[in-house]
Amino acid sequence: MSNFNRRHFIKTSTAIAAASALPFPMLNIRTAGAQANTVKVGILHSLTGTIAIAEKSVVDAEQLAIEELNKSGGAMGHKIEAVVEDGASDWPTFAEKARKLIEKDKVAAVFGCYTSASRKAVLPVFEKSKGLLYYPTYYEGLEQSPNIMYTAQEASQSVIAAMDWLMKNKGKTFYMIGSDYIWPRTTIKIAKAVLAKGGGKLVGEDYYPLGHIEFSSAINKIKGAKPDVILNCVVGGSNVAFFKQLAAAGITGKNQTLLSLAVSEEEVSGIGADNTADTLTCMGYFQSLKNPANEKFVKAFKAKYGANRVVGDTLECGYIGVYLWKMAAEKAKSFEVEKVVAASSNLEIDAPEGKVKFHATNHHLWKHARIGAFKPDGQVNMIYESPLIEPNPFPKL
Amino acid sequence: MNLDMFAMQAFTGLSVFTILTLMALGLAIVFGLMGVINMAHGELMAMGAYTTYFTSQFFSKYLPSLFGIYFLVGIVLAFFVTFAFGWLLERGLIRFLYKRPLDTMLATWGLSLILQQLFRQFISAKEVEVTTVSWLKGAWQASENVSLPLSRIFIIVLAVVTAAAVYAFLYRTRWGLRIRAVTQNRAMAGAAGINTERVDAFTFALGCGLAGIAGSSFTMLASTGPTTGQAYIVDTFIVVVFGGVESLLGTIASAFMIGQMQAWFEYSMSGSMARAGILLLVIVVLYFRPNGLFATKVRRA
Amino acid sequence: MTTSTTPSTSTAPRGANLWGVGSFLLLALLLFVVFPLSMDVFRLGLAAKYLSLAFCAAGIVLVWGYGGILSLGQGVFFGLGSYFMAMFLKLEAAGNADSSSGTALSAFFGSAGLPDFMAWNSVEVLPWWWEPFHHVSFTVLAILIGPPLVAFVLGYVNFRKRVGGVYFSIVTLALAAIMAIMIIGQQGYTGGVNGITDFKTFLGMDLDTERAKFVMYFITAALLLLCVAIGAFILRSRVGRVLVAIRDREDRVRFSGYDPALFKAFIFAVAALFSAIGGAMFTLQVGLASPSLVGIVPSVEMVIYAAVGGRLSLIGAVYGALLVGWAKTFFSENFVEFWPYLIGALFIVVVMFLPTGLAGLVDRLRGGFLRREGR
Predict the structure, then answer these.
(1) Cys-Cys with B147: which of A30, A272, B139, C123 at CB 3.0–4.6 Å?
(2) Taking CA atoms, what residue in B is nearest to C353?
(3) How far apart are CA B282 and CA B289, in angstroms?
(4) A363: left (phi over 0), alpha (psi -120 to 50) or beta
C-alpha cells in the first residue's frame, strides 16, 4: 500500500474531517502550546485506583510548589500552568496520558509517576517525543534516561548506608521481607551483597504479593529465626497489615530492631503511630528536620492542606522537583528540554532536606541517607545522618 | 519444625480459616441463596471498616472514658449501616436483575468503582488509622514460646458466633423459614402468603450486613482505605465458589481447606509462590469436584 | 448459570443476513475511512489501543453469548499474545542496542544482546525458551497456535468433567491470577511487575513514527474485521447451531450423540486466538507487555466491553470496546477525578436499561422500524 501518499492525503483533508459529525475528535478543545506569558507543565499521577493512596499527596506537594513559584514571579517571568492527568494506577494509561501531555498540551516538563512500572511505561514516550519527566520516588536504580530527572534516592543511596549502620550498631543476623516486585527484590539483592561483605548472616528472605494482608505465617517464621534485625521492604497497604500483625504478635520496636525502607511519616498515619513506635526508618527526608527551608515548606503545606496533614520523603522530592526544573530553566534561559537538562548538571538547591545537588552526568541527586526512630506521635527522631552520597544507579555488586 | 512452631502455625491456619469464613458468609448468602454475584461485596466490607473508624473517632472525641467498648459498638453499627445500604441497593438496583445473574456482576462492578471513588474523595485518599482497643492488643502467652495474638482470638470467637447466629436464624426462626422457602420455590412461597419481595430485600441486606461485620473486625489486622475491598473480593469469591455455591456448610469447609493450605504453604515457601500454589490446587480440586466441594446433588432443569 | 434469556440468532427476523452484512460494512467504513480522516495520529493511536481490546470482546461474545461459558480469564490469552510479541520486540531491541535510551545500558553490564531487565537481574544467558523468539515466523506461529492450544486443552479437560458455569469462571479467574503472580515472581525472565517495555523497531520499522502508527492502525482494524468475519462464519455454520443448542439445553445435545465438550473447547480456543492477536497488536502499539494486563481486573473489564456492546453481537462488541475506551479517556481528560462515577454509572445504566447492550438497542429500534414499515 502506498502509505506515504495516503498520509499526505490525510493531512490535507483534516479540514474536511473537522467538519464531520463524529463526536470523538471534537473532544479535545484545549489549545495546545504555551500562550504568551504562561508555560504549561504536566502533573501525571494516579488519582484513582490502588496507587492513588500514595500518589495523591505528591500532587498536592507539586501544586504547592507551582503556586509558590507563581506568587514569586513564576519561571523566567512565565506563569506556570499545570495540566493534571490521571494515570489511574494503570501503566498503559500512564503511557497514553504522557503522550497526550507532551504531544497535545506541549508541556515543558512533566512531574509525575510513582511506581517503577509506570515510569518504565512512560520512558519510551518521553525519549521518543523529547519530553522531560521529574520522578519523585525512591526507586531501585538501574536506569538513567536522558529525558528523566530523578529527584529521590536510588536503592544504593539508602540501603547501603542503612545496612552498614545496622551491622555496626544492631547486629549481624538479618531477616529480609518485601513485597514481590522489582524495588524490594533489587534492594534486598544489594542488601544481601553488603551483608555478605560485612560478614553478616541472612536467616530468612520472604516475598508477598503486592496488597497481601495476611502476615501471620511470615511472623511465625520470623519468630522462629530470631534475627537481630528485620529489614522491611514491604510497601503500601501491606505495611498496615504487617505492622498491626507484628504488634499483635508481641513484636514491637522495643524488643526487636526493625528497619523499614518504605515507611515514611505519611504511611505511619495509616498504620497507626503506636504500631510503628521505636521501629527504624531510612529515608532522605524527615518532616522533623530542623532547617529554615524545611520549616517554611512544612508550614506552607499545612497552611494549604490542613494542620493534620504530614509530609514525607516522596512529597518533598516532588516539591523540590518543581523548583529544580524552574532553576534549571532560568539557568539555561530556555524551556527547551535539552537545555534544561544540560543546565541541571551540578545544579544545587537549598531544599527542605538540606543542600543537595544534581550529579554532573547521571541525572540523580547527591543525597543524605538518614536513619531515625519513629516516635509515638508518628514523627521521626533522627539518629544518624550520612554525608552526601554520590548517586550510582548501576552499582557493581 | 518444632512443636511450638507447629502450634503457632496451626493457630494461623485456624485464624485464616475464621477470617475467610467471616468474609465469605455474606457473599455465600447473597450468591448461594439468591444467585446474585455481588462484586461490590469488598466495598461493603470497606464500608463496615469505615463505620468502625467513625465510631472510634466519635468515642475518642465525646466518650473517651468508654473508648474500650467502642469496637463492639463499631461492629454492631457496621452491621446496621451495611444492612441498610444493602436494603436500598436491593430495592434500587438488584431486584430488577434477578433473572439475569451475570448482569448483577456488571452492575455491582460499576457500583464498586463508584463506592471506591466516594471513599477516596469524601473520606480520604489515604488509609485511615483505626485504633485497636487496648484489651485486644498484644498476645496471649500460651507457653514460653507460643504466643497467640488476642485480635485473632477475638476474630475466631466472632466468626463462630456469627456463623452460629446465621445458622440459627436460617433454621430456627420464622424469617429464616421464609428465606429458605422463597429460595427453594418462589411461586409456592408467594402462594403461601409470604411477601417474597420483602424476603428478597431482607436476605440481600443480611448478606451485606455480614460483610459489614467482617470489614469492621478486620480493621485490627489490615488497612482501611478506598481500595481495601479489592484485597478481599477475590478470596471471598473463590471461597464461596470452591465450597459449592448452594451450600453454606460448603463455604465453611472451603474456608477451612483454603485457610489450612495458606498456613502451611506460606510456612514452607515464599508468600507469592504459596498464593500461586493455592490457586492451582483450587483448579485441580474443581476438576475432581466440578460443582464445588459440597455440591448439592440436584438435577438442574 | 448457563441459561440465557435472550433469543438466539435463529429467531432473527428475515433480512438478518442483509442487515448483518450491512452493519459489517458500516463498521469497516467507520474504521477504514471515518476514523483515519477525522483523527490525528494521537487519537488514532488510542483508537488502535481500544480496537486491540475489542478482539477480546469479540471472543467473549463467542464463548459467553453463544457458548454460555463465562471466562474471567481472557487476560491470560491476551497476555500470552502480548508477551510473545514483546519477547520478539525486546530481542530485536537488544540485538541492536546502540540507542542512548536509559534502559539500554545493558552494555554497562557486559551483556549486550540480552534484554536489559535480564542484565539487572543477573541473568547472564538467554533462557532457552526465549531463543526461538528471535525469529518472527516462530513468534507469529506461537501467537496463533499457543494460546488456542492452551485454551483447547484446558477447556476440553474441564468441560469433559462438566466443570461449568460459575465454576469454570473461577477456574479461569484463578488461572489469570496465577499467571500474573508467576510473571511478577520470575522477574529475571519476564521483566516482573514492570513488564517488558522500551522497544525500538519491528522488523526494522521504527515503531514510533507517524507512518508506523498508521500502518499499525490499519493492520489492527483489518485483523479485527477478519476475526469478526470468522466469528460470524462460525456462528452461521453447523458448529454455531450446535453451540447455541448446548448453551440452551446441554443434556439434550449430549443425548443426541454430540460431544458438547468438544464444541465448547473449540469455541473457547477461537476466543483465545482472538485475544492473543489482540494482545500482540496491543503490544505493538502501546509499546509494553505488563502483568497488569493479565490479571483479574483486565479480564473482567473485557467481559464488560462485550456486555456494553451486546453479548450476542460480534460487531456490538467492537463498538462496546470503543465506547468504553473512549468514555474512559474522555471522562478522565475532562473530569479528572470524577471519571469513575461516570464509568460506574455507565455500567449500571447499560445493565438496567439495555440488557442486550448497544446491539440490543439497535435491534429494538430496527424492530420497531420494520414493524411500522410493514403496516
Answers:
(1) B139
(2) B96
(3) 10
(4) left
Judged by CB atoms closer than 8 Å, whether chains meet at A117 and C334 is answered as no
| Chains in contact with A, where contact requires at least 3 CB pairs less than 8 Å apart | B, C
CB distance A209 to C184 below 8 Å: yes
Rounded Cα gap, residues B254 and B260, in angstroms: 10
How many other C-beta atoms are found inside a 10 Å radius of the C-beta of residue B301? 6
Asked whether C293 and C283 are in contact (CB, 8 A), the reply is: no
Neighbours of A11 (CB within 10 A): 11
Q: Do B34 and B203 meet the contact criterion of CB atoms below 8 Å apart?
A: yes
Sign of torsion over alpha carbons C113, C115, C121, C126: negative
CB-based contacts of B267, cutoff 8 Å, min separation 6: A217, A220, A221, B1, B9
* Closest by Cα among C244, C200, C288, C255 to C65: C244
d(CA A381, CA A375): 7
Per-residue pLDDT of chain A (397 residues; tens, 9 = 90+): 344 444 444 444 443 343 333 343 333 333 334 456 899 999 999 998 888 888 989 999 999 999 999 999 999 999 999 999 999 888 889 999 999 999 999 999 999 999 888 999 999 999 988 999 999 999 988 888 999 999 999 988 999 999 999 999 999 999 999 988 888 988 998 899 999 999 999 999 999 888 888 999 999 999 989 999 999 999 888 899 999 999 988 899 999 999 999 999 988 988 889 899 999 999 999 999 999 999 999 999 999 999 989 999 999 999 999 999 999 999 999 999 999 999 999 999 999 999 999 999 999 999 999 999 999 999 999 999 999 999 998 887 6
DSSP 8-state assignment for residue A102: I
Closest to B119 measured CA to CA, from B229, B232, B225, B38: B225
**Cβ within 8 Å of C, A 7-66:** 7, 10, 13-14, 16-18, 20, 22, 24-25, 27-28, 47-48
Which chain C positions have a beta carbon within 8 Å of B283's beta carbon? 171, 174-175
- What is the C-alpha to C-alpha distance for residues B239 and B31, in angstroms, rounded to an integer? 12
Contact B29, B213 (CB under 8 A): no
Find chain B residues with C-beta within 8 A of A218's C-beta.
Answer: 266, 271
What Cα–Cα distance (Å) separates residue A167 from each residue in A153, A170, A196, A198? Answer: 21, 6, 11, 8
Closest to B282 (Cα-Cα) out of C155, C72, C173: C173
Query: Dihedrals φ, ψ of A356, to 5°?
Result: -130, 160
Taking an 8 Å cut-off on Cβ atoms, the answer to whether A117 and C181 are in contact is no
Find out whether A82 and A42 touch, Cβ atoms under 8 Å: yes
Which pLDDT tens digit goes with each residue over B82-101? 999 999 999 999 988 887 77
- Residue B290 has its nearest CB partner, among C163, C182, C338, at C163
Q: Which residues contact B222 (CB under 8 A, 6 or more apart)?
A: A213, A237, A240, A241, A244, B228, B231
* Tally: H helices and E strands in chain B: 12, 2
Of B13, B46, B80, B68, the residue nearest B222 (C-alpha): B46
- Whole-number CA gyration radius for chain B: 20
Beta-carbon count within 10 A of C3 CB: 13
Task: Kindly report each contact of residues A130-134 with a partner whose C-beta sits within 8 Å and lies 24 or more positions away, as own/partner.
Answer: A130/A102, A130/A337, A130/A338, A131/A98, A131/A101, A131/A102, A131/A107, A131/A337, A132/A108, A132/A325, A132/A337, A132/A340, A132/A341, A133/A98, A133/A109, A134/A109, A134/A110, A134/A318, A134/A321, A134/A322, A134/A324, A134/A325
| B149 at interface of A, judged by CB pairs closer than 8 A | yes
Q: Treating both helix axes as pointing N-terminal to C-terminal, what angle do B196-217 and B228-243 enclose, rounded to 10 degrees?
A: 120
Burial zone of C270 (CB within 10 Å; 0-12 exposed, 13-18 middle, 19+ buried): buried
Q: Extract the C-alpha cell encoding C4.
A: 440465557
Contact in structure between B51 and B74 (CB atoms under 8 Å): yes
According to DSSP, residue A35 is labeled -
